[in-house]
Write a structure and sequence with these properties.
mainly alpha, Arc Repressor Mutant, subunit A, 2 domains, globular
């Protein structure tokens, strides 16, 4: 069943979900970040049905997140690789993994360790930072409607003390 499309919405989060909102899509992107390139690698690692994998890969290609390229080993088959658009999802995937490790970890621990490749040290938590690199408190991060879009206020306004 096809889900609702957010392609007409002005919200960038909603529009991004049109491309990566399927949990299979996020797991395919994760596996591609870890080096999977062949259909059979995605299928075997994820345990996903071939027709579902075909559909998700097609969606990711149409969304410009992945592309098919000639096999790196010279064989006749094609491989799937992340495009620049797909590679730029890395902070999203890493942040989701870090959140999962903290809040919904498996009893055996995480299945993936995210490190700095050269040193092996654990990657710092993905979090909003100021331009100088200093982490920010969430209360200091502003999010508002742009381009004159109506903004709903969900928190109680404090009375003016004057």
């Amino acid at each position: 069943m096809k889900t609702k499309s957010f392609s007409d919405m002005q919200c960038s989060i909603a529009r991004a979900l049109d491309h990566v909102g399927s949990w299979w899509s996020l797991l395919i992107i994760r596996d591609a970040m870890m080096g999977a390139r062949r259909f059979k690698h995605f299928q075997e690692n994820l345990g996903i049905a071939k027709n579902t994998l075909t559909s998700r890969l097609t969606d990711l290609i149409e969304g410009g997140i992945m592309e098919k390229v000639p096999a790196s080993d010279g064989y006749a088959h094609e491989e799937y690789v992340l495009t620049e658009r797909g590679r730029e999802l890395a902070p999203v995937i890493i942040a989701l993994a870090q959140w999962g490790d903290k809040w919904v970890a498996h009893e055996k621990g995480p299945s993936t360790v995210i490190t700095v490749r050269e040193s092996g040290e654990k990657l710092p938590r993905i979090w909003p930072r100021r331009e100088d690199g200093e982490p920010m408190a969430l209360k200091d991060v502003g999010m508002r409607r742009a381009n004159g879009a109506p903004q709903k206020i969900w928190h109680e306004e404090k009375e003016d003390p004057s």
